[in-house]
From TrEMBL:
Enzyme class: hydrolase
Enzyme Commission number(s) of this protein: 3.6.1.55
Gene3D superfamilies for this protein: Nucleoside Triphosphate Pyrophosphohydrolase (3.90.79.10)
Span of domain Nudix hydrolase: 3-131
Keywords: DNA damage, DNA repair, DNA replication, Hydrolase, Magnesium, Metal-binding, Mutator protein
SUPFAM superfamilies: Nudix
Listed cofactors: Mg(2+)
Organism: Streptomyces resistomycificus
Family according to the record: Belongs to the Nudix hydrolase family.
One Pfam family named in its UniProt record: NUDIX
Identification of the protein by name: 8-oxo-dGTP diphosphatase
Gene Ontology BP, a term: DNA repair
């Protein structure tokens, strides 16, 4: 069995909104939306990878909160794990710095207005349930 490589995704929540990022690369994913994140490097915890990836991809300072239960297969050997996260006080607004050409904050009723990548849909469903709970 090959080694699994964990990709962390951030359900970045802010004021009852979830951040969605539109892929600009690679071509087969361009134009579809995802939860931002990236690969966990050797010796790194998933939470530390999430904070690092969001700093590199979006230029924001964040804090990982809780892992959303489950993991979702990507292209082998990758699996997606998702954490809820929040912006740290004093962090700037997210900007699409790497692999994305647009970001959008979505409220609970807007979450399904964008075409999510298939592998992100179950995690987005879980994240949006948390969004709904916070909105009540």
């Amino acid at each position: 069995m090959t080694e699994r490589i964990v990709v962390v995704g951030a359900a970045l929540l802010d004021g009852g909104r979830l951040l969605a990022a539109r892929r600009s690369a690679p071509p087969d994913l361009a134009g579809r939306w995802e939860l931002p994140g990236g690969k966990v490097e050797a010796g790194e915890t998933p939470e530390a990878a999430l904070v690092r990836e969001l700093r590199e991809e979006l230029g924001v300072e964040t804090e990982a909160l809780e892992r959303i239960p489950g993991e979702w297969p990507l292209r082998p050997p990758y699996v997606l794990q998702v954490w809820t996260a929040r912006l740290r006080p004093g962090s700037g607004d997210p900007k699409p710095l790497q692999d994305h050409d647009e970001l959008r904050w979505l409220t609970a009723p807007e979450v399904w207005d964008v075409p999510w990548l298939d592998q992100d849909v179950p995690a987005v469903r879980e994240a949006s349930a948390r969004l709904d709970a916070r909105a009540r």
